[in-house]
Amino acid sequence: MSSKNALDMSLHDRRRSQRMEDPEFRAAYERATREIEQTDQVIRELDALRVDLGMSKAELARRINRNASSIRRLFTASSSRPELPLIAAIADALGAEVRVIPKTPASKRSTHQRREPAAA
C-alpha cells in the first residue's frame, strides 16, 4: 500500500483522545477493552488446548454439533464475541471447564457477592 493510499489514523487518534477526556466514555472504553481481552484470552486457551489434544477444528465442531466454518472463524477471527454457552460447550468437548476467578481476595469483595447457602 503506498503512503498516498495509507489510512490517516491521526484523525481517529485525535478523536479518541478527545473522547477519552470524558470520564464516562473512558470508563466504558476501558471496560470494553477488558472484556475483549478476556474473551480473546479464553479463545486462545481453548484453541491451545484443542491443539495439545491433537483435535481438528472440524472434529471439535462435530462434537458440539456446530458448523465447522463457525469454529474456524471463532479461532481465527481477529476479534469475536462468542456466547457463554458456546464457550462452555467447547470447554466441555475439550475436557475442560470454564471458571470465574475473582480479581480481589474474598475479604475485599462487596457484600453483594453471591454467598453459599447455609447448611440445614
Description:
The chain is mainly alpha-helical and 120 residues long. The chain has helices spanning 9-20, 23-52, 57-63, 68-76, 84-93. The chain is flat, with a radius of gyration of 20 Å.
Helix and strand sequence = HHHHH
Tally of DSSP helical segments:
5
* Unreliable stretches: none
* CATH classification class of the domain at 18-95: Mainly Alpha
* Radius of gyration over C-alpha positions, nearest whole angstrom: 20 Å
- Strand elements, count: 0
Q: Name the CATH homologous superfamily of the domain at 18-95.
A: lambda repressor-like DNA-binding domains
* Shape, principal axes of CA atoms: flat
**How would you characterize the largest beta sheet?**
none
The chain-level structural class is mainly alpha
What name does the CATH topology of the domain at 18-95 carry?
Answer: 434 Repressor (Amino-terminal Domain)
The CATH architecture of the domain at 18-95 can be given as Orthogonal Bundle
Arithmetic mean pLDDT: 84
β content, as a range? under 5%
Q: Between the first and last Cα atoms, what is the distance in angstroms?
A: 70 Å
Helical amount among residues, as a percent range? Answer: 55-70%
Brief summary:
By secondary structure, this protein is mainly alpha-helical. It contains five helices and no strands.
Write the layout of secondary structure elements.
Elements: H1 9-20, H2 23-52, H3 57-63, H4 68-76, H5 84-93
Helix pairs in contact: 3-4
